[in-house]
Design brief:
75% helix, globular
């Protein structure tokens, strides 16, 4: 039976404490930001843009217009200064939200991948079931944090979702938005929060049931318990495919209420799925190296690496499809999403394509490399960093605009959720036998060879 080592537990708790302190400092610092601070930032931006314009004698009409707007806002536009203030105050919320969504999404997709293995009656992956079950233990913790975050947003404690601004749906208000008003059947705060609760409750209910049944399978006679998990997994996957897309619309695309993409749910799914499989590979490699998974062989790692490679290509296909169709159609209500990211997030937006596609292709295409743990770890680290940036670029432009930076708020949130993930995963792994003995396909999995 695995024992959660004191050293690893100390690391997890240290990450959580350091992260929590950094998050608290970020929120404190953000709440003390004033309108004068925002005006000073605008003035500095104006000076920078003005100097660059004079130095380069830019002739592009768009840049000239943008510089003029900056100049006007810097000197006289209090409304713009208040908007920048909201962006500055949003940064700790946004940084926390990026990490929260990233770790919640990874945990959820590990659960979905686990359900797929059960429904497909896959033989190769049974020896990895307890690893996946342990990872999904984190779902309970991050779901509670997400629920509190959503309630805080519902109570207007932040300015992340522009459609939640008072007067958005009131034709008599200066904040009335006719485009968003058309979507009020979906974009309304009671419905938004109620749907979110349904998502979180459904996911956690399945995880609780299937984990309980999985442990019961170890000592159960016959396959009655196994069939219960199978049927529950079928129902969950139907529920998951619906709610994952809806969650993507509510929690991410809702940050840009004027923009829409019919591919967005699939795009978010692909980003989180490749990250989830990478995390399964990491935890498996670690436990195997410590001698706790002697029944896992190189062929199991090879299959995990194949999924990492394959879904990296799938993500790239969806990224290209979404971008190319919008670029080719050249419709202003669609292209504004990418214009913002090209102008203010050029390096992370294009850099993640290299990290999420080019690097995995070069490193994991060779079949032999897929069996080498340190190759998988190197490729996986780049993949996880690249998809964190992917989520970062989905959220930050809409919430903080060009007032972004990777500093204390972002690092602190990452450390906190990483520590929580480690604690939840390895605590759960220590509570059950490392091998799911009651599964009828166990012998096939133990003898699996590619």
């Amino acid at each position: 039976m695995y024992q959660f080592s004191g050293k690893l537990k100390t690391f997890a708790l240290a990450f959580m404490v350091i992260g929590a302190l950094g998050v608290a400092y970020s929120f404190y610092n953000g709440s003390n930001t004033t309108l004068e601070d925002a005006k000073e930032i605008i003035a500095n931006q104006h000076d920078t843009h003005g100097a660059a314009t004079v130095a380069t004698h830019a002739s592009d009409a768009h840049n000239e217009t943008k510089s003029t707007e900056h100049a006007t806002d810097a000197h006289a536009n209090d409304e713009h200064a208040e908007h920048v203030l909201h962006q500055l105050q949003n940064r700790p919320w946004s940084a926390f939200y990026v990490s929260l969504f990233f770790f919640l999404g990874i945990t959820l997709l590990v659960l979905a991948f686990y359900a797929i293995q059960r429904v497909a009656q896959a033989g190769w992956s049974i020896v990895l079931f307890r690893v996946m079950e342990a990872i999904t233990a984190n779902l309970h913790y991050v779901s509670v944090i997400m629920l509190f975050f959503l309630i805080a947003t519902f109570m207007h404690m932040n300015h992340l979702f522009p459609w939640m601004v008072e007067g958005t749906f009131d034709p008599a208000s200066a904040n009335f938005d006719p485009i968003v008003d058309v979507k009020k059947m979906w974009l309304n705060t009671p419905g938004w929060l109620m749907r979110s609760i349904v998502y979180l409750a459904g996911w956690n209910l399945y995880r609780y049931f299937v984990r309980k049944n999985s442990i019961a399978e170890d000592t159960a006679e016959g396959i009655k318990t196994y069939k219960k998990s199978y049927h529950a997994s079928v129902i969950f996957l139907v529920f998951f495919m619906i709610t994952e897309s809806m969650m993507s619309w509510d929690w991410i695309m809702g940050l840009d209420p004027h923009w829409f993409s019919s591919l967005f749910g699939w795009y978010v799914l692909a980003s989180l799925l490749v990250s989830a499989i990478t995390v399964i590979a990491f935890v498996t490699i670690y436990l195997r190296a410590k001698g706790h998974l002697p029944f896992v062989n190189d062929s199991h790692l090879h299959d995990l690496a194949k999924y990492m490679f394959g879904f990296s290509v799938f993500w790239t296909y969806l990224w290209y499809s979404q971008f190319m169709l919008i670029w080719y159609a050249d419709m202003s209500e669609e292209t504004v999403y990418f214009i913002t990211r090209f102008e203010d997030y050029n390096l992370p937006f294009l850099g993640m394509v290299v990290m999420n596609f080019v690097f995995p292709i070069l490193l994991l295409m060779n079949s032999d490399f897929k069996r080498v743990p340190w190759f998988i770890v190197i490729g996986g680290l780049v993949i996880l960093a690249g998809h964190y940036i992917d989520i970062f670029v989905m959220i930050m432009p809409s919430t903080v605009g060009d007032q972004w930076f990777f500093g204390i708020p972002e690092i602190s949130a990452l450390l906190f959720f990483l520590g929580l993930f480690i604690y939840a995963t390895f605590s759960s792994f220590a509570k059950a036998a490392p091998l799911a003995k009651g599964n009828p396909f166990l012998h096939e999995s133990e003898g699996f060879h590619y």
